[in-house]
Amino acid sequence: MENDAIPPEFLEPEGDAERQDPDLVLETTSATLRGLWKDWMCKRGDGTFVDVEFFGRRIGGVPTLAVDAYRALEVALRSAGYRPDSRWAYNCRLIEGTNQPSLHSAGIAVDIDPDENPFSGGDPFAGKFGPDHVAAALAIRNTDGARVWSWGGHWNTPDRMHFQLDRGPTAVDVDWDTVPGGRPEGAEAGAIEVKEEEMVLSKGTKSPAVKRFQECLLAWDSKALPKDGADGVFGNETVDWVGRFQKSFGLDKTGVIDGVTAALLVAQKK
Ligand SMILES: [Zn+2]
Question: Do residues 47 and 146 both lie within one domain?
Answer without folding.
Answer: yes
